[in-house]
Design brief:
2 domains; DNA-binding; alpha+beta; Arc Repressor Mutant, subunit A; 11 strands; about 50% helix; three-stranded antiparallel β-sheet
Length: about 240
DNA sequence: AGTAAGGATGGAGACCTCGG
DNA sequence: CCGAGGTCTCCATCCTTACT
């Protein structure tokens, strides 16, 4: 009888949670940062509600999801930003070229909308996220050379733009998150989340349907051009 | 809307047999 | 002895049904 490495056992159990298409579909859906009901996720994953209930139980028990019950509804969301980062990092390992090809025009349109702009848990991603990250860097507001960090000018810019940077726990102020469509890092962390929240609250961008895709509004194009010098063509 | 129980199904691994 | 192929068993996943 050989003794097992506890760390290997824990890693295998964590990996097993990801190693199911239904659970993976749920985790990817929950990357939008919102709380979903069990029935919404069941429809999304294409399985029966009872089947999804079992999967949710495992994901909650495994610490990947947090649940909240309201009346007869069971809302679930990703447990925290670290789980979101893990899911996004794993998704980034899947080459876009190896991804399933769109089966029809609708899927193709949805895919291009996601590539154009989307939320990645609680921050902006896709070409929109990259354009904002590049603009912040070009203006000396974000430092990428030594790992993502806001410069003093960057802190001042967020303050002047009225975007509050509330530190919670040990979450870094700025962090790089690998973008799975652009294959480049975009801004995440407290600053990335605050910027995304501000963009949605002020109507710079709006969500498209029930997916994670977001669309920059005319007001958003003006704001991004005036504040960061982002040209609208960079967002298309 | 959500959960629990029970049964069906399919994949993976273990085991066995047989031929070269 | 070794590899191929067949069979069996276990387990994860899914569904239907009944129930809260």
């Amino acid at each position: 009888m050989t003794t097992r490495d506890p760390q290997a056992t824990a890693l295998a159990r964590l990996a097993a949670l990801f190693a199911d298409e239904t659970r993976a579909a749920c985790l990817l859906a929950l990357l939008d940062g919102r709380a979903w009901t069990a029935s919404e996720l069941a429809r999304h994953a294409g399985v029966a509600a009872s089947t999804l209930s079992e999967h949710l139980g495992r994901l909650v028990a495994g610490g990947l999801l947090a649940e909240e019950r309201q009346g007869r509804h069971r809302y679930v969301r990703l447990a925290d930003a670290r789980v979101a980062q893990l899911v996004e990092d794993l998704a980034a390992q899947v080459s876009p070229g190896a991804a399933v090809r769109p089966r029809n025009l609708r899927e193709s349109s949805a895919g291009s909308a996601m590539a154009r702009g989307r939320t990645c848990y609680d921050h902006l991603a896709g070409r929109l996220g990259i354009a904002v990250t590049d603009a912040l860097t070009a203006r000396g507001l974000l430092e990428q050379e030594t790992g993502f960090a806001l410069t003093d000018a960057g802190l001042a810019w967020f303050a002047s733009a009225g975007i509050g940077l509330e530190r919670r726990g040990r979450r870094p102020l700025a962090r790089a998150c690998l973008d799975w469509t652009e294959r480049r890092p975009h801004l995440a962390g407290v600053a990335g989340a605050a910027l995304c929240r501000h963009a949605l609250d002020t109507g710079w961008c709006v969500r498209i349907g029930s997916e994670r895709a977001v669309k920059v509004t005319a007001a958003g194009e003006r704001a991004l051009r005036d504040l960061l010098g982002v040209e609208s063509m960079e967002l298309r």
